[in-house]
Design brief:
- With 238 residues, the chain is α+β, with helices and mostly antiparallel strands.
- The chain contains six helices and eleven strands.
- Strand 10 and strand 11 form a beta hairpin.
């Protein structure tokens, strides 16, 4: 087991302990291809009648353990994309370790929303627009934790941070994430359609747009979508 594998194992073990401290059910991904290490399930709200209980909170968490001197945690872009696209709340938990003492020094909970989601979707868009780009699983994306994302290394702090980000209504969260995912990076008019006609005078062109000249040969049509200021032609026009 190399140093990075040891760090990863140490971080995942500690993360599981944090969940267990506060009674959060956690299931690990047996094959690290889904973009997440753990799915966390909160308990039912026992204060409500059974038939009135809301859907318990659930979320995906990717755990990244790095040396305390390392600035950013790095994910494969295809895995980061899964966190952004999945309907459930998604987080990246970054744990920092001092290898001299083997102690955890910091823990950060990065919510994959707003600027975090935007950076992922923009990076995917950039790769999509580049015909010479590597596959997404060969591209890396870095996440630098912010001071406001730092939490205490306790199960209570982890649980409270998740609740603070997600809220108490899972259905409302899922809908809000869907809308955000579909709107991020788009300007007011993201689509541009260009139609090319051959040998038309200005008068003929005016007649076309006024519907007075319906039988006109179209020699070219181009549809372009712009997102994050990156323009891409779709594979086909529906």
């Amino acid at each position: 087991m190399n140093k990075q594998q040891k760090l990863g194992y140490k971080g995942q073990q500690r993360f599981g302990e944090l969940c267990a401290e506060v009674g959060l059910t956690f299931n690990s991904s047996q094959v690290d291809l889904a973009g997440w290490d753990f799915i966390i399930n909160f308990p039912d709200d026992e204060s409500e009648r059974v038939d009135r209980r809301r859907t318990p909170l659930s979320c995906f968490v990717q755990v990244k353990t790095i040396e305390h001197t390392t600035r950013s945690a790095v994910l494969k872009l295809n895995m980061a994309q899964r966190l952004a696209l999945d309907a459930l709340p998604s987080f990246i938990c970054v744990l920092k370790v001092d290898l001299k003492t083997n102690d955890f020094t910091d823990v950060f909970l990065l919510h994959v929303s707003e600027d975090r989601m935007s950076s992922i979707l923009k990076r995917v868009r950039t790769a999509q627009a580049d015909k010479d780009s590597l596959p997404l699983n060969k591209i890396k994306i870095g996440f630098t934790p912010k001071k406001v994302e730092r939490i205490a290394l306790t199960g209570e702090a982890l649980r409270d941070a998740i609740v603070r980000y997600v809220g108490s209504d899972m259905h409302a969260y899922v809908e809000a994430k869907r809308q955000q995912r579909e709107k991020l990076g788009y300007e007011e008019r993201p689509w541009a359609l260009s139609v090319e006609f051959r040998d038309l005078s200005d008068t003929d062109m005016l007649d076309v747009f006024l519907g007075r000249k319906p039988d006109v040969a179209v020699t070219g049509v181009e549809l372009v979508e712009t997102r994050f200021s990156i323009s891409i032609r779709p594979n086909r026009i529906r």
